[in-house]
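Lecture notes, part 5. Sequence design as translation. It can be helpful to think of inverse folding as translation between two languages: the language of shapes and the language of residues. The source text, in structure tokens, appears below.
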């Protein structure tokens, strides 16, 4: 392990002026995809719980497709499948977008986590206590204000434990990014293994890095839960 760290730690952890480290690429993929999925999932979750089938059915279909197919297949579909279409290659913007592995990876990751997050938030919205809604109406809030000031903040707080699991699962899912030639932590580990044939140390170091990131994420979410879900703690006798 010491030899591997001495020879290849820069590829795993160090970013220079020309190349991002595997850790930096992995965190970039995670942050961008999670941010995209979070922002898109809130309006989609509202549409998902709507009584109008014209709003809820398309969101249900989107969620069903992306939760019902493997992320690896989705990445291959965007990275190789889309670019094989003549209509994509003939349009400059589409041709440039789907030719880049980073773009396809972010698109696949963002849509995948958006589908799962939409269902998490939709479930939290449905579980909003009716008394909170009645209290908002008693203050004369219209539907938009009710969602903005009561339902959405309350739902996001209750969804925090489930959403923390989704973020951690998304971190682990970034390991398929090497398929699109994106140099994440696993891609660096595979390159180290190919150069040294020391699989135990190469992948062991990668696993250690993922474990440290997961530990930090869990600690951050636990701190957030202790702050924003304090009112749900059982009362002491």
């Amino acid at each position: 392990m010491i030899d591997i760290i001495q020879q290849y730690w820069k590829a795993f952890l160090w970013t220079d002026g020309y190349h991002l480290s595997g850790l930096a690429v992995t965190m970039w993929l995670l942050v961008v995809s999670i941010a995209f999925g979070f922002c898109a999932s809130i309006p989609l979750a509202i549409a998902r719980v709507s009584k109008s089938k014209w709003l809820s059915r398309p969101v249900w279909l989107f969620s069903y497709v992306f939760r019902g197919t493997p992320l690896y297949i989705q990445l291959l579909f965007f990275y190789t499948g889309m670019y094989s279409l003549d209509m994509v290659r003939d349009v400059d913007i589409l041709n440039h977008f789907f030719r880049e592995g980073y773009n396809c990876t972010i698109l696949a990751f963002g849509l995948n986590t958006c589908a799962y997050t939409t269902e998490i938030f939709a479930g939290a919205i449905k579980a909003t206590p009716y008394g909170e809604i009645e209290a908002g109406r008693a203050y004369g809030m219209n539907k938009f204000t009710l969602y903005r000031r009561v339902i959405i903040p309350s739902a996001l707080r209750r969804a925090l434990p489930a959403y923390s699991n989704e973020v951690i699962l998304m971190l682990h899912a970034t390991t398929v990014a090497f398929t699109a030639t994106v140099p994440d932590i696993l891609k660096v580990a595979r390159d180290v293994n190919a150069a040294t044939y020391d699989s135990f140390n190469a992948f062991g170091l990668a696993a250690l890095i993922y474990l440290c990131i997961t530990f930090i994420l869990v600690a951050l979410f636990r701190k957030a839960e202790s702050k924003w879900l304090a009112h749900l703690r059982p009362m002491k006798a």
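The translated text above is only one of many valid answers, since several sequences can fold into similar shapes. Residues 21-182 form a domain with the MetI-like fold fold (CATH 1.10.3720.10).
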